Amino acid sequence: MKNWVFSIVTVFMLGGLVHKTASAQHDEKAINVGFSIPEVALIDIEYLGSQTIEFELLPSSETGGSPVIRQRTNQELWINYSSALGRFSQHRSIVAQVTDGSLPQGLDLFVNATEYSGNGDGHTGVSAGKVKIGTDPRPVITGIGSAYTGNGIGNGHRLNFEVDISQMEKVMANESIDFTILYTLTDN
After folding, report:
1. Extended strands (E) in the chain
2. What tens digit of pLDDT does each residue of 167-177 get?
3. Rounded Cα gap, residues 7 and 100, in angstroms
4. How far apart are CA 96 and CA 115, in angstroms?
5. Helical segments of the chain, H only
């Protein structure tokens, strides 16, 4: 009986040790993590060659024929942008307008931004197609969300320009007329 009591006491002692090792203390601590993401609206024009575009009006090769408009400079212009929308912004647009000068009378200038290409990410904008440029801002790229286009030539939207004669009777010969086209990334 002595062995039997010793065995029962040993089992209770071992059971108590196993129970203590199985119940460890559990403690938790928490830290707060915060992010500060500011609104971002950055735009850049990248170019290969010159940032000046030159057109010339040449006489027709046939008497009585329509003049020919030729682009004298052949370079690439690309719009790059970065956009992080604010809480209440749904999307942005890039608008273009003539500043610092005026278009020659009788001529219309059009810009066509290509669809997005490049190594950016996010909700890039879409081309508004062929847009007549004047002194009032007109959208050339719309629907820009939080996105970036990538930097440099080949990223973003390539800009293609075209000049048409709208009123030949107003076209006057002169040496040159210079003006600036301003591009603005704006909230809608």
Report:
1. 40-48, 55-58, 68-71, 76-84, 92-99, 107-113, 121-122, 126-127, 130-133, 138-144, 147-148, 157-165, 180-187
2. 999 988 876 88
3. 103
4. 16
5. 2-22
